[in-house]
Amino acid sequence: MTTAQTPPVPGSGPLSGVRVVELAGIGPGPFAAMLLADLGADVVRVDRPGGAGLGLDPARDLTNRNKRSVVVDLKAPDGPARVLDLAERADILLEAYRPGVAERLGVGPADCHARNPRLVYGRMTGWGQDGPLAHRAGHDVAYIALTGTLGMIGRPDEPPAVPANLLGDYAGGSLYLAVGVLAALHHARATGTGQVVDAAIVDGTAHLSTMIHAMLAAGGWQDRRAANLLDGGCPYYGTYETADGQYMAVGALEEKFYAEFLRLLGLTGLDAARTDLSRWGELRERIAAAFKSRTRAEWTAVFTDSDACVAPVLGLREAPHHPHLAARSTFTDHDGVTQPAPAPRFSATPTAVRTGPAMPGADTAAVARDWRLPTRPADGPRTDGPRGPRTNDAPTDGG
């Protein structure tokens, strides 16, 4: 477990030596950059004067862990040139502006590729770089609404349930941006040619529903909420309230798991109800009544050592203390803050939370030294000529 006393591990992880420039934003862009930083990349976040606008204490913004920060005013005369100096030395650049904004600021793909043809330029938006809605504002809930995924979630007699902003921003956005820029980096290293990665939340979220579309085409999925095997329509795949107002999650899909589930729940005469849709109402009522007879802790003890595929529904503060997650160190503590540990895991290049959130501008001098940035007076040209040889040396101060 990483603690505040553990020294930084510079360059640890499979992306050690990879340099990333992140133009500060909010939401899925910073999370994608955090993922690359967790995997060992040297991520330099270019913060804007005054912060990103969410009002979150920078010392608590965990999506900025394992990064370093410089502050650049892109609207200042020397602002674009300072970013281009970084882009010239980077492998990947990430930005999350509306289409055309980076170009107007002088740090768009053409500007960056003129200085560094090998650069992978990653663009994170909700609607994408083109299309009728490309220039419109939006947030996670609207993006997932148009893809059909939001409409799948919730009870049939209630409005669709909003899954925080995990499905769109982070699953459909951040993870697809990270996969995209790493794939493009592989191409750039093989060919010497960079490219632009257009990661749109609507595209990624739609892509996540590929299996559902396959089932829909095959007649195995109904296009309505809580009417299918995996959306809460099935009585042995869902959640049930316990005697103390908590919940248990049930996923006893396969026949042998279902039989184990009924046995431990104390229900009989329901074997045939598993595949008899006309009895699903009865099955749901009996399962619900059984769960209401004991507390969550009691049911957890009943199902702990079984293959019935039943688990307690835990809160955010409870999850790190679950015995399995604790044994795997799924969560870690750093600077007194409990947080998810980097994922996935690597046998030869282990990852770690090396440093806490990067404070805006705190690493300006170290980045200038490690990346061999030229000196640029506020109203003058660079003073040291072109950059020196590219190195893969890890930063000396973590960050």
Structure, described:
- The protein has 399 residues and is of the alpha/beta class.
- Helix content is 32%, strand content 13%.
- Helix 1 (28-38) packs across helix 6, helix 5 (140-146) packs across helix 6 (166-191) and helix 6 (166-191) packs across helix 7 (201-208).
- The longest helix has 26 residues, at 166-191.
- The radius of gyration is 25 Å and the shape is elongated.
Kindly list the characteristics that best describe this protein.
399 residues; 13 helices; alpha/beta; three-stranded antiparallel beta sheet; disordered C terminus; six-stranded parallel beta sheet; disordered N terminus
Tally of DSSP helical segments: 13
Give the strand order, joined by hyphens, for the main sheet. 3-2-1-4-5-6
Run of helices and strands = EHEEHEHHEHHEHHEEHHHEHEEH
Main sheet record: 6 strands, parallel
Poorly predicted ranges: 1-10, 385-399
Q: Give the overall shape.
A: elongated
What's the end-to-end separation, in Å? 18 Å
Number of beta strands: 11
State which percent range the strand residues make up: 5-15%
Radius of gyration using CA atoms only: 25 Å
* SS content category: alpha/beta
What is the secondary structure topology, with strand pairs?
Layout: E1 19-23, H1 28-38, E2 42-47, E3 67-71, H2 79-89, E4 92-95, H3 101-105, H4 109-115, E5 120-125, H5 140-146, H6 166-191, E6 195-200, H7 201-208, H8 210-217, E7 237-241, E8 247-251, H9 255-265, H10 280-291, H11 296-303, E9 310-312, H12 323-328, E10 331-334, E11 337-340, H13 364-370
Parallel strand pairs: 1-2, 1-4, 2-3, 4-5, 5-6
Antiparallel strand pairs: 7-8, 8-9, 10-11
Helix pairs in contact: 1-6, 2-4, 5-6, 5-7, 6-7
